[in-house]
Amino acid sequence: MSELLLVSIMIGAIQSGTPLLYATLSETIGERVGIINLGLEGIMLIGAVVGFVITVLTGNAALGVVAAALAGALFNMIFAFLVITRRANQLACGLALMFCGVGLSALIGAPFIGRQIEGLNAIKIPVFSDLPFFGRAFFQHDILVYLAIPTAVVIWWFLFKTRWGLSLRAVGENPTAAFAAGKNPYLLQYQVLFISGLLGGIAGAHLSLALAHNWAEWMTAGRGFFAVALVIFAKWHPLRAIAGALLFGGAISLQLQMQARGVPVSSFILDMLPYVLSLTVLVIWGRTSRSAVPGSLGRVFQGTE
Amino acid sequence: MKINPAPLLSFRGITKSFPAVLANDHIDLDIYGGEIHALLGENGAGKSTLMKILYGFYQADGGSILVNGQPVQIRSPHDARGQRIGMVFQDFILIPALTVAENIALFLSDLPFILDNDAIVSRIENISERYSLQVKPEAPVWQLSVGERQKVELLKLLLADARILILDEPTRSLAPHEVIGLFQVLANLRRDGYAVVVITHKMKEVLECADRITVMRRGKIASTLLGAEATENTLVSLMFGKAVAESPQRRGESPPEEGIPFLELKGVSTQPEGTGIGLKEINLTVRPGEIVGVAGVSGNGQRELGDVVLSIEKCARGTKYLGGQDATRWSVAQVRNSGTAFIPEDPLGMAAFPWLSVQENMAMSDVSRYARHGGLSMDWEAVRTDLQASLKRLGFQIPPFYVPLGILSGGNIQRMILAREMAHNPRLIIAFYPTRGLDVQSAVAAREVLLASRDAGAAILLISEDLEELFSLSDRLAVMLRGEIVATSAPRDITVQEIGYLMTGSKGEGAERG
Ligand SMILES: Nc1ncnc2c1ncn2[C@@H]1O[C@H](COP(=O)(O)OP(=O)(O)OP(=O)(O)O)[C@@H](O)[C@H]1O
Ligand SMILES: [Mg+2]
User: By the CB < 8 Å criterion, does B112 face chain A?
Assistant: First the structure.
């Protein structure tokens, strides 16, 4: 394999892995507090379109990212209200949120289809970016790429080293016990879903502002659902999510490179590659341990009498 | 005893109804600072409900709560903690996936935002050392036995800086030296002017430690007496409105030494799981018509022993015989079908499904017995008949069969498990704390049924920390320590004190150290 190919695959892995990582982190903290959000795809789309539109209108991509994050968070509050306050079924509400996000983003984005923007520029890290091979692979990316892994570490730190993280894990395991310990499960779930929405919005913004530099309907193409699977792969752990996102980013990138180079294999089979890989890894590495799954995942806290 | 003139805490007209029951009916009660107040009453009397209302876990339908004479609104446990009220629940609410230290940290409101695990661990170790309530701070709670969980719950409360402490049946699964330790702690708290409310079914403890005793009956206060004036008889007749039969005694003659044992373990060892305990070279026989009692501080391998017999856990070495057959590799279903009844240490966690109805839970242990039309339907009539017959034999009240099991009171859940397991004339009974949480009357009934089963030829393995119960029921006794059987003896050849020392490994020393 030529060095050039290897570098392109690396760059591709990091670039496509980044939105996957933000999305996986978004879902991870949500599930840690006991809520499965299948609407992640919709949140990412809202983030993608709002980020794009704001960037087009203001010419400021940083403002676009901030707007995307806030839009994702606000959009997720609809879901939060339904599943926390109204105690509705999480799976059904998640799917509804997804479809809503697909439609709403298409509506908002319609006038902007075909517009190209500069979006988020690559920032070259001085000195390092001139290194042969590594320089191009690792040190010529946009700001969201550089921030992705630190974000994962910060989330890990909050989850496992702070009182707030302990409380939210407790709610995800057993909200009744957390309530009896003097916590407010509803409040914690709202807080976490807000942050989860921020991250989902950023994931979407990276797609439209850094990867595609344009807006297309349903441009997430299932990445939101893929992130839900990655959470299981990462066993609900933010640091393992880094490895997972890079691995599957790499698979996507490999597939694109093979397609671009006209490898004589049906493109349908190539499209399946990341998914086949994920299934294989789950088979080999599977066996979710007994304490990995948050104990009350998907269940609704009914309160006490 | 020094009781301050004004009550620290008052209930006024507290009323709480659940669908179909009036759990608390206009309760008026005063609790003073500097007293240990015992709350007694039969299973389902409404004791836990009243305390959960004080703790903000339930909301009363009517009435008010006064702290220091001021009416307070307690809408959640968070509010209760704000009033410095702390509670240990009867059905523990620890989080199995978290460690002991994390569970305790969750409960402490004075911790900094950034948790310092080492500081928490050393705080836990300090206080557990001081009050001889030994726990392993780093162990995940799912690995702990009930006795250890109970200790974690107590430590939680003791560290939480409460001035009104509620303990709902705290001594159910503590070893004797731990009970003594606990009551010393409570005495210290009383001296410092704290108010302690203890719910228990153990008369001895009540009479020893309580300054005042309140008896509840069917949701009302029957009476409040001074501890010094109360006797067991007055309390029992207040609780049930009649005298209770004497506890049955084991028969005088020793059991037949011959006959093939129904259960035999030969050199059985298991692999310890995590920080848990593995069994080491266990040799144990239980013959038909014999009760073998296993004494030991909870967490010294008793749970593993039951798991091995039931085939929930595999033998790493050694063999297990059931009814003379090599059963080492049997599945749980095979063991159950050979006539084994199992009363687990943690009924809600291991034997029951809180959200299924009482009758569904009843059918669960033996689905094939009640399946009709090749499993396409269930014969609920037969389920109800069997359950009714079994409850009657035990002399227990019959609850509605359609309600979810989880809403029954703690003692009533234990009653249902007993009734289910004893329903089909088991040949082997593995009973963990069979009378735990039962009121005096029900406990006597349960012991009678165990003895009757034994006389009818059942082999019984009785695991308990209640030494008196072990002595009065067992034909032989075994003592477990750190996964080994360290002694076996007939009850008449050994004293309660000797067993106590054997259980802890030395005179008065904590057992789990090292
Ligand atoms: N969440 C609930 N929903 C419905 N009924 C309930 C609920 N909690 C308790 N009850 C009912 O209220 C009554 C009183 O229960 P409570 O738990 O207070 O009894 P208790 O005095 O603590 O008994 P025990 O000694 O068995 O623990 C029981 O009949 C019980 O079935
Ligand atoms: Mg109770």
Answer: yes
Q: What is the ipTM of this complex?
A: 0.88
Q: Determine the residue of B93, B200, B408, B416 to mutate for testing ligand 1's pocket, defined as the one with the most ligand atoms within 8 A of the Cβ atom.
A: B408
Proximal ligand: closest to the CA of B414: 1
Contacts of residue B96 in chain A, CB cutoff 8 Å? 173, 291, 295
Chain B residue with the nearest C-alpha to that of A160: B115
CB B343 within 8 A of CB B314: no
**What is the value of pTM for the model shown?**
0.85
State whether A173 and B81 contact (CB < 8 Å).
no
Nearest CB among A164, A173, A304 relative to B98 is that of: A173
Tokens 């893929």, located at residue: A226
Q: Where are the alpha helices (DSSP H) in B23-111?
A: 47-54, 77-82, 100-107
> Is B262-273+281-339+428-514 in the same CATH topology as B9-240?
yes
Neighbours of B54 (CB within 10 A): 24
> Which residues are close to ligand 2, an ion, with C-beta < 5 A?
B 48, 90, 409-410
Asked if A191 reaches chain B (Cβ–Cβ under 8 Å), the answer is no
- Neighbour-count burial for B365-396, b at 16+ CB within 10 Å, e otherwise: bbeeebeeeeeeebebeebbebbeebbeebeb
| AA identity, residue B412 | N
Question: Any chain A CB within 8 A of the CB of B140?
Answer: yes
Ordered by start, the domain boundaries in chain B are 9-240, 262-273+281-339+428-514, 352-425
Phi then psi for B102, rounded to 5 degrees? -65, -40
Range A3-292 has CATH code 1.10.3470: yes
**Going residue by residue through chain B (514 aa), what tens digit of pLDDT does each one get?**
445 578 999 999 999 999 878 999 999 999 999 999 999 998 989 999 999 999 999 999 999 999 999 999 999 999 999 999 999 998 778 998 999 999 999 999 888 899 999 999 999 999 888 887 888 999 999 888 888 888 899 999 989 889 999 999 888 878 777 888 888 889 988 998 999 999 998 888 889 889 999 999 999 999 999 988 888 888 888 888 766 666 666 655 555 666 788 888 888 888 877 666 788 888 888 988 899 999 888 778 888 898 889 888 888 888 888 888 888 888 888 888 888 889 888 777 777 788 888 888 888 777 777 887 777 788 888 888 888 888 888 888 778 888 888 888 888 888 888 888 888 888 899 999 888 888 888 888 888 888 888 888 889 999 987 888 888 888 889 998 888 888 888 888 888 878 878 887 765 443 333 2
So what's the architecture of B9-240 in CATH? 3-Layer(aba) Sandwich (3.40)
Element (H, E) at A252: helix A238-260
CB of A162 within 8 Å of a chain B CB? The answer is yes
Q: Specify the residue with its C-alpha closest to ligand 1, atom 18.
A: B46
A162 CB neighbours in chain B (<8 A) are 113-115
User: What residue ranges do the domains of chain A occupy?
Assistant: 3-292
Q: Which CATH superfamily is domain B262-273+281-339+428-514 in?
A: P-loop containing nucleotide triphosphate hydrolases (3.40.50.300)
